[in-house]
Amino acid sequence: xxxxxxxxxxxxxxxxxxxxxxxxxxxxxxxxxxxxxxxxxxxxxxxxxxxxxxxxxxxxxxxxxxxxxxxxxxxxxxxxxxxxxxxxxxxxxxxxxxxxxxxxxxxxxxxxxxxxxxxxxxxxxxxxxxxxxxxxxxxxxxxxxxxxxxxxxxxxxxxxxxxxxxxxxxxxxxxxxxxxxxxxxxxxxxxxxxxxxxxxxxxxxxxxxxxxxxxxxxxxxxxxxxxxxxxxxxxxxxxxxxxxxxxxxxxxxxxxxxxxxxxxxxxxxxxxxxxxxxxxxxxxxxxxxxxxxxxxxxxxxxxxxxxxxxxxxxxxxxxxxxxxxxxxxxxxxxxxxxxxxxxxxxxxxxxxxxxxxxxxxxxxxxxxxxxxxxxxxxxxxxxxxxxxxxxxxxxxxxxxxxxxxxxxxxxxxxxxxxxxxxxxxxxxxxxxxxxxxxxxxxxxxxxxxxxxxxxxxxxxxxxxxxxxxxxxxxxxxxxxxxxxxxxxxxxxxxxxxxxxxxxxxxxxxxxxxxxxxxxxxxxxxxxxxxxxxxxxxxxxxxxxxxxxxxxxxxxxxxxxxxxx
Length: 564
Prior knowledge:
Layout: H1 2-42, E1 54-58, E2 63-70, E3 74-78, E4 83-87, E5 90-92, E6 94-97, E7 100-108, E8 118-126, E9 129-138, E10 145-149, E11 157-159, E12 165-167, E13 176-183, E14 187-191, E15 203-204, E16 216-219, E17 229-237, E18 244-250, E19 258-261, E20 275-277, E21 283-287, E22 292-295, E23 301-307, E24 312-322, E25 325-330, E26 338-341, E27 347-352, E28 360-368, H2 378-383, E29 392-397, E30 418-421, E31 429-430, E32 453-458, E33 466-470, E34 487-491, E35 505-509, E36 522-526, H3 528-533, E37 537-543, H4 547-552, E38 557-563
Parallel strand pairs: 1-9, 12-18, 20-29, 32-38
Antiparallel strand pairs: 2-7, 3-6, 3-8, 4-5, 4-7, 8-9, 10-11, 10-13, 13-16, 14-15, 14-17, 17-18, 19-23, 20-21, 21-22, 23-27, 24-25, 24-28, 26-27, 28-29, 30-33, 31-32, 33-36, 34-37, 35-36, 37-38
């Protein structure tokens, strides 16, 4: 029985111990299960869905609004620096935000013209992962260029196919127009028509305004003056590609217009730059700067004639006194001493025969075809001589040198020039023959006529008035006119040796020409008191035939009075 009781007690004790162990294990297993369950919960992966990549096209300088949805905090980046994110007035290369629906703005940072298409990618980063969000295409910019007629102080005028650059004829032959260009790329002048003077290395930078520093002038070549022409002025990029051309036109010389220039390019006519030859038929050149005449070794000189399409007729005339009248007359072929070669269009090659008599003058009339009469004769020319002066120029030939006491003494200025009188005829000297110790004609005035400026050295003892009576001037010529004075007197080199104010001058009475017996005409008289009071110095007196000459300060004659 004890055994049975002990066995039962031992069994019960063991069972209690086993239950405790079992319960321990149950608790442990539960704890492990809970722990395992918690561990599984912590390591479970969270899956984030990225927005699908979108293609976006943007123009240079354009601002574009974009939208996307993010399931977590995000960051945007871009792989090209020309794309920026816009927030207010600020721009950024990166952008961040929180989860949710998003709206952003982008634009191009570089507003310089881009002439080729470019690509960029905007990427989004979430949960340490990065994917493309937008594929950006920046479109190419079209090249643009414009040309303008540009004159200082005036608004530029755009040149187009419908409104080309017109070079317009003027009587001075200096035909040009200011030009300027504007382009959205760096540019250079590539070419001009062959009838326009080369402009040089004209260039400019990309700009939205007309670059005044890159403005230039397009000049018409003189040899192209007579003809109508059209062409194009072209610019390119700095590599010489991508050309833009702009039309330029010239209508040619108008009907009746003419340009006559000597071998030195100076306009010639009745009143200026007469052609001169020595008595032995050599060309005499006058240097206006030096005030000197030089006999050359040339026996002919060339005159350039420009008229519309180089169509003209040439006539040789002389100015003679017939029945007490000065008239134009066709030069008799048997007496003709001047030779004019017209073989080359636009060129007259002029030569003369030797002269054994007095100084002589011939006149060459060049008429544009539109002015040529059906019958050219001296009567027609005399009736229209005033209107034909710009088409006529003089050719003078010296007389042989005269030996004796009177050799070289100028007792009268020649026709179309002036004669100087007081108490008889005063000898005066051509400027080129007077020694001014290196001074040139330009030192005394800009427009003094090279072939009609004379010098008179005032005798120290002289105390009377000075009277200047111009030959060849109109009969009604009054130097001190009611409307405008037809003379100008200036002190050379800014001295005050001579008094030049108007009260010192008056309309004087000319003396009879002792050489020709011609009657008196109105003259310019300089006060005797002013002469007496004048200190040693030089007085320049310019004489104008009419108000037009006076307005432009281009005298027909000039006299330099020297008081020692």
